[in-house]
């Protein structure tokens, strides 16, 4: 490092001397790279100045933007170092101007999405700034000009990384943590639940860890649950309940207020020290419970209601002894209630499925059981209606009830009974195929456009003859009227005109069969101009003849 | 009633035969030919179907166009209309007829497909 400094100084002096005498100085690539490397954020201001002046005197290109950002980073670091130094000086010294620098520097912090607040120079500068600001403020006993949400955002930025690039960065974070835990003005409070934020009858206590930034428990705090309300119904369950401290953890017996199962939104306030910052938190707590199935009644109901239903009651977790038979004339029905085991309150869990499993073929069909307005679950199976799901395969199906929810501690899979379903035999497929979803599908061949139906050739030929027949009529009429070519003069223009005219008609035919418009227009231009000139002359001669005869 | 219609028609035919110059009669024959051709094409379309519709259209438009151009020629050639066509000699009318026909046939052949 010292050698680098020496090199740069030497180069700069040399350059200045040489530039006075010579206009061109040869520079090796190594020298240039050395000079460019010096312009980085780790250099001192004098190093940057020397290398930049050497580069510009040598006429080498500079990265001006890099130099500017290096100088700006220097500025922030200098102020922070000034703050740290000032915090060790005697209190009689005039530190007011330096104290104002805290506010100026705080204004340069970047707000990222309202969550993070940091310098664009990086984590190290932000963390060092925090520890410098608080140590100087403690030293002069004046509150730093940082607002509560700014402190929260600074905490978010500084402690967002879990591993650091360098020892100096790690040191800056540790020093910021120490100053945030131990200063006279602002102490951010971290509240987290111990384990999952969930209570149940077996675990009725909600446990919270309340610590400072260094994870030291704040024993002097008093934690109060200001309100707890159910997320679904927004009704308040708890108000102004105090947490008790036990073994460094704050706990509250939430189950004592007998909440129904579900999610609750807690609003917790931590008091006890005027320095506490971020001492109002929102927490989501889950209350779980155990479910019990009551009044499981299975019955086979005749469709035309002529025979009364036979209801069998089954107790969980036993299975019904007799199997139930249902064919096209009967419906199979199941009703039950789901209640909270301890309180007996009716529950509506997220998943209540009825699964029918054919043990022989491995088929399984799943239906949803829906609750009615009185929270009584009903399931009805109409064999005729549902035959497509079963592929009309008759046989014995094992009936399972599946109950599950995030707030249930005991999800249930219960083989309730066996059901024999009879479908009309002629609809059953010959072989039972496993549903193949991921095999290549049959290829779709491309269908070329079918040519349109044409009328028979005889009809077309007849009509062609019919359409051409008036031409014969025309010739006959002209003959009868006495059309003749007796005035035909054999002058060159006449002959040329007639040849040209015939050529035009021939060109039309060739256009129809072979050519396109552009070629035709080209030929037409040639033939047409010849015909025009010849025709013009011929008609002029005819006109002259007509005038002389008149 | 029919009697008067019949007498009007026979009178008209008599006048036509006697007073129309031969040239005009020839053009009238040509007009009749074009008319019949167009009628037969239309008949085909009505009876059998419009399968190559573009062909039918081009044929029919050719007939219609030719009819119109021939009528124009007849009007311009007719010596009784000489007052209206001072600048147009019969030769000029015929030349115009030929030129317009060239363009018409170019379009028709393009469209017949």
UniProtKB/TrEMBL annotation, chain A:
One annotated GO biological process: protein N-linked glycosylation
Which positions, given as ranges, span the membrane? 463-483, 495-514, 520-540
Q: Which Pfam families match?
A: Ribophorin_II, Ribophorin_II_2nd, Ribophorin_II_3rd, Ribophorin_II_C
The record's subcellular location field reads: Endoplasmic reticulum membrane
User: How does the record classify its membrane topology?
Assistant: Multi-pass membrane protein
Keywords linked to the UniProt accession: Endoplasmic reticulum, Membrane, Signal, Transmembrane, Transmembrane helix
Q: Which spans of this chain does the record mark as coiled coil?
A: none
* Family in the record: Belongs to the SWP1 family.
Protein name according to UniProt: Dolichyl-diphosphooligosaccharide--protein glycosyltransferase subunit 2
Q: Which organism is it from?
A: Sinocyclocheilus rhinocerous
From TrEMBL, chain B:
State a GO cellular component annotated for this protein: oligosaccharyltransferase complex
Membrane-spanning segments: 30-49, 55-73, 93-112
Bilayer disposition of the protein? Multi-pass membrane protein
One protein family per Pfam:
DAD
Q: Keyword set for this entry? A: Endoplasmic reticulum, Membrane, Transmembrane, Transmembrane helix
Q: In which pathway does it act?
A: Protein modification; protein glycosylation
Known partners and oligomeric status: Component of the oligosaccharyltransferase (OST) complex.
Protein name, as recorded: Dolichyl-diphosphooligosaccharide--protein glycosyltransferase subunit DAD1
Origin organism is Sinocyclocheilus rhinocerous
């Amino acid at each position: 490092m010292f050698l680098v400094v020496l090199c740069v100084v030497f180069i700069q002096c040399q350059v200045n001397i040489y530039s006075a005498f010579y206009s061109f100085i040869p520079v090796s690539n190594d020298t240039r790279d050395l000079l460019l490397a010096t312009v980085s954020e780790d250099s001192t201001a004098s190093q940057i100045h020397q290398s930049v002046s050497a580069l510009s005197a040598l006429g080498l290109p500079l990265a001006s933007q890099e130099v500017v950002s290096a100088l700006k980073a220097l500025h922030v670091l200098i102020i922070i170092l000034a703050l740290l130094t000032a915090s060790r000086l005697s209190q009689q010294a005039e530190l007011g101007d330096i104290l104002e620098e805290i506010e100026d520097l705080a204004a340069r912090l970047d707000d990222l999405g309202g969550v993070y607040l940091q310098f664009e120079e990086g984590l190290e500068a932000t963390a060092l700034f925090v520890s410098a600001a608080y140590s100087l403020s403690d030293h002069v006993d004046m509150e730093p000009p940082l607002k509560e949400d700014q402190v929260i955002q600074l905490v978010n930025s500084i402690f967002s990384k879990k591993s650091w690039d360098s020892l100096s960065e790690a040191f800056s974070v540790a020093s910021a943590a120490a100053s945030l835990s131990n200063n006279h003005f602002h102490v951010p409070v971290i509240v987290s639940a111990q384990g999952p934020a969930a209570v149940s009858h077996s675990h009725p206590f909600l446990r919270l860890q309340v610590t400072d930034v260094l994870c030291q428990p704040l024993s002097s705090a008093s934690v109060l649950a200001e309100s707890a309300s159910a997320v679904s119904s927004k009704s308040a369950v708890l108000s102004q309940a105090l947490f008790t401290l036990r073994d460094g953890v704050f706990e509250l017996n939430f189950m004592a207020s007998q909440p129904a199962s579900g999610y609750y939104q807690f609003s917790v306030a931590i008091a006890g020290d005027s320095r506490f910052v971020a001492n109002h938190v929102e927490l989501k707590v889950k209350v779980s419970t155990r479910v019990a199935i009551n009044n499981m009644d299975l019955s086979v109901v005749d469709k035309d209601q002529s025979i009364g239903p036979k209801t069998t009651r089954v107790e969980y977790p036993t299975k019904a002894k007799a199997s139930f038979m249902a064919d096209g004339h009967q419906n199979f029905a199941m009703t039950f209630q789901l209640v909270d085991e301890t309180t007996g309150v009716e529950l509506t869990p997220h998943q209540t499925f009825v699964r029918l499993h054919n043990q022989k073929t491995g088929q399984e069909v799943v239906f949803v059981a829906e609750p009615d307005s009185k929270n009584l679950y009903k399931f009805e199976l109409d064999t005729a209606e549902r035959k497509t799901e079963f592929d009309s395969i008759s046989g014995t199906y094992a009936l399972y009830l599946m109950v599950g929810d995030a707030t249930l501690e005991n999800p249930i899979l219960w083989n309730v009974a066996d059901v024999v379903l009879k479908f009309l035999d002629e609809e059953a497929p010959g072989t039972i195929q496993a549903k193949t979803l991921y095999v290549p599908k049959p290829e779709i061949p491309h269908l070329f456009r079918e040519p349109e139906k044409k009328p028979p050739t005889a009809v077309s030929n007849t009509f062609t003859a019919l359409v051409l027949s008036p031409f014969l009529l025309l010739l006959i009429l002209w003959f009868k009227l006495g059309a003749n070519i007796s005035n035909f003069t054999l002058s060159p223009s006449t002959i040329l005109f007639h040849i040209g005219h015939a050529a035009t008609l021939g060109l039309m035919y060739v256009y129809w069969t072979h050519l396109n418009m552009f070629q035709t227009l080209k030929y037409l231009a040639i033939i047409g101009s010849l015909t025009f000139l010849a025709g013009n002359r011929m008609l002029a001669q005819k006109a002259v003849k007509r005038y002389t005869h008149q | 009633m029919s009697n008067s219609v019949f007498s009007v028609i026979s009178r008209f035919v008599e006048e036509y035969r006697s007073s129309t110059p031969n040239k005009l009669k020839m053009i009238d024959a040509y007009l009749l030919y074009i008319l019949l051709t167009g009628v037969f094409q239309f008949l085909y379309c009505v009876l059998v179907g419009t399968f190559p519709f573009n062909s039918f259209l081009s044929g029919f438009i050719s007939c219609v166009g030719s009819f119109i151009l021939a009528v124009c020629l007849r009007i311009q050639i007719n010596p009784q209309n000489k007052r209206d066509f001072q600048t147009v000699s019969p030769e000029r009318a015929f030349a115009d007829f030929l030129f317009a026909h060239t363009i018409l046939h170019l379009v028709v052949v393009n469209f017949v497909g």
